[in-house]
Amino acid sequence: MQTLSRTPLYERHVALGARLVPFAGWEMPVSYDGVSSEHRAVRTDCGVFDVSHMGELEVEGPRARELLQSLLANDLDRIGPGRAQYTLLTNERGGIVDDLIVYELDPCRFLLIVNASNREADYEWLKGRELRGSDVRDVSDDYALLAVQGPRSIERLGLDPAPAFTFAEATVDGLECLVGRTGYTGEVGTELLVSADDASALWDRVVERGAVPCGLGARDTLRLEVCYPLHGADITPETDAISAGLGWVCALDKDFTGVEELRRVKEAGPSRRLVAFVMRDRAVPRQGMAIAGGGEVTSGTHSPMLDRGIGLAYVAASAAEPGRELTIDVRGRERRAEIVRKPIYERKE
User: Fold this and answer.
1) Domain that residue 209 falls in
2) Percent of all residues in the chain with a pLDDT value above 70, rounded to a whole number
3) Is 175 among the domain residues?
4) What is the CATH number of the domain that holds 309?
5) Do 190 and 289 fall within a single domain?
């Protein structure tokens, strides 16, 4: 039987009565008071997520940039110190080994925030391709990561406004953090990287400031409403970025692992595309459900904001335009859905 890892905030989750579930080898809170109420708290005010299961890899040295430029799909030359970038780690077939965020700490030192389930694989992938003059280290156990998200998140934390995908060292109620203006909900927010020893104190202070504790359930419904892909479901090592709608992350004018295949797919056009859809019949789609005529749901849920079933699916590129009707096999019953433009949900000011 697998022994599950626990984040530094495990005792806080138990004390709050969280429902804990296995996730990527970790015992994590899926919800506290309910997915829908936590979801709405993030959309309307402020929520806090423990995402300390995510991995942190440091890449340092005079050739660190050169190493990452050869392995990551996006172009690091588009950012600089104090800025972050969403990017992909790709294999020789153009498949997505992982999607991640890279922070440029200085021109010779980078921090990568990677998916929990891919932490070891990403480390081995990077470590096995080190250049002389670069050093890859897994520093995940040194840190905890809190995601504070929602339209009032910056206000509640007492932080000054800052552009998205920037970061800076700062203090939150006297605790030193790396404050990144990033997130996975589609809302304004921040991700606070803090010493593992300070995690509980930071969590307490963030909750005292009015952030609602939120679990993985709301994290999934929030990201799906805004069509952020989930690695292992919507994107995988067998999925290319062009078909997944992530061509914008790929700097095809530079050389990196798998770029030749991605250039070929872009020029020829992908045979399938990842689309967003909304159910027209009352039903909740789930991963793996078949679509008539070919295709498959990769993510599905009930949208708390739309009160409808929503999802992402791969369908033939020739049938991927918004407005096209889909027929999904929902537990043996045909249910109608419609392809829509991304994101599925947008705030109405």
Assistant:
1) 10-52+142-225
2) 99
3) yes
4) 2.40.30.110
5) no
The pLDDT assigned to 176 comes to 98
Look at residue 320 and tell me if it is in a domain: yes
Same domain, yes or no, for 215 and 318? Answer: no
Report the domain count for the chain.
Answer: 2
Burial 44-83 (b: 16+ CB within 10 A, else e): ebbbbbbbbbbbbbbbbbebbbebbbebbbbbbeebeeeb
- For residue 348, pLDDT over 90 is answered with no
The structure tokens listed for 243 are 């078909």
Which amino acid, one-letter code, is at 346?
E
220 within some domain: yes
DSSP 1-14: -PPPB--TTHHHHH
Contact 345, 303 (CB under 8 A): yes
Question: How far is it, in rounded angstroms, from Cα 148 to Cα 183?
Answer: 8
| Largest separation between any pair of C-alpha atoms in the chain | 59
Work out whether the CA dihedral 31, 18, 29, 177 comes out positive or negative.
positive
| Same domain (yes/no): 41, 148 | yes
C-alpha distances (whole Å) from 86 to each of 60, 206, 250 are 19, 26, 10
- Judge if the upstream peptide bond of residue 81 is cis by omega within 30 degrees of 0: no
What type of residue sits at position 4?
A: L
DSSP state, residue 240: B
pLDDT in tens, 180-204: 999 999 999 999 999 999 999 999 9
Provide the sign of the torsion angle of the four alpha carbons 204, 12, 143, 216, taken in this order.
Answer: negative
Q: 225, 187 in Cβ contact below 8 A?
A: no
Whether 240 shows a pLDDT value over 70: the answer reads yes
Burial 111-122 (b: 16+ CB within 10 A, else e): bbbbbbbbbebb
